[in-house]
Structure formats: C-alpha cells, structure tokens
Amino acid sequence: MKWFRRRKAEDVTPTHLPNAEEAAQRFWERWFELVPVVSAALGDGEPHRVEDELKDLVQALHPDLMFSLEQGHMAIYALVITGQEDPRLRPYTDAWIKAAPPSDMVWEFHDSVPPVPDPTEVIVNLGEVRMRLGDYRVVAQVDGDVVDVAVYHPALAELSDQQRQTMTFLPLDVTLGERLAGERLRRVETAQLEPEGTISLLELRSLVRELAGVSDG
C-alpha cells in the first residue's frame, strides 16, 4: 500500500473544475486513456512510472484529495481516492464513485479506505523505518457509541511529527475502514510508551464492529 499526497501548492496550478460532476466525468475520460499504461506499469512492478500522471489526474479532480494504488479485494488492483472524511471534498468523491465504471477482474474503485482483511500482515516502510502493523497495540475506551483510542508502536518515536501522525491514523483506517473509523473513533492519541491494558488491531476491529452492529464475519 502506498499513499500519494498532492504536490506542494507552489508546484502546481489548481486545474480542477468547480462542478464535481464535470470534474468526475473528465477524470474518467482521462482514466480510460491512461489505464493501459497504469496496468502495464503495475504488472511490471514499477508503479513509479505512472505516479506523476496519476497525481495530475487526481489533482484535476480536486487538489486536496489523496489516492492510493492497492491490491484489490475482488480485482487484481484497487484505486482508492479519499477526502479523508472532509465534508468539503465529499461532493467530489461522491461524484467520482457514482461515475466509476463497474469493477472487473483487473480494477475496482473505492471512495474511502477499505478495511484490509488482515492488517497485522501489512508492513509499511518509511525510509529506513519498517513498521509492521501487527506490532501495534491500542488502548480503547468506550463511551456510549464512540471509542477513544491511544495508539502505540515502538517505532513511532523514530518518526517525524507528520509521519507519526500519519502512522497513528493509518493502521486505524486499514483496520476499520475509513468510514467506520470516522464514525466511531472520537479521540485518537499517540502513546509515547506502551500503556497497560492494550489490545491488538484485530481486537479493536471486533470491538468497534460490535458497537456499530456490523458483522465481524
């Protein structure tokens, strides 16, 4: 899993259309032209060949959106475009997913980060720091229908502030899915030292899904 943020503001001139439906239509027109090249690059194990083209494509939809290329759940590849639950961006992701083509054997599309079947098998490399999500521990405190969490990983102390923030929220998103995390997690903190009474990410998933009345099967 590799997430791509937009380029710095000084590096680009915003070109997205103010009308979300028109922006989505333009995106898919360009996607169909680009997808053979994207599929070929991924098939060769060289996604860097198309990173700039995809950044420009998403930039044109809206410059504040993030995207990732992932292994699909039902298809070979998945394209995820997310506004990270920012209400300003919801019209763009809604229009984008509404206009998306049906999933096929090669591509599927998501407008929020879907949960990974087993997040404990995911490894994220940040420069020289290698973080196995299975090593995360979480303290979860239920308050009514929401949960406050403190997140701990021994490598978080080695990261920059921005990396630490990303790697505090990312394991929660890939464990619960971005939508469920946004709905049910209230306060999220980074624990400097491993707290007592921690649970695993999979145990957190079961807890939050039970709270939300979502099947854990």
TrEMBL record:
This is Uncharacterized protein. It comes from Lentzea miocenica. The lineage of its organism: Bacteria, Bacillati, Actinomycetota, Actinomycetes, Pseudonocardiales.
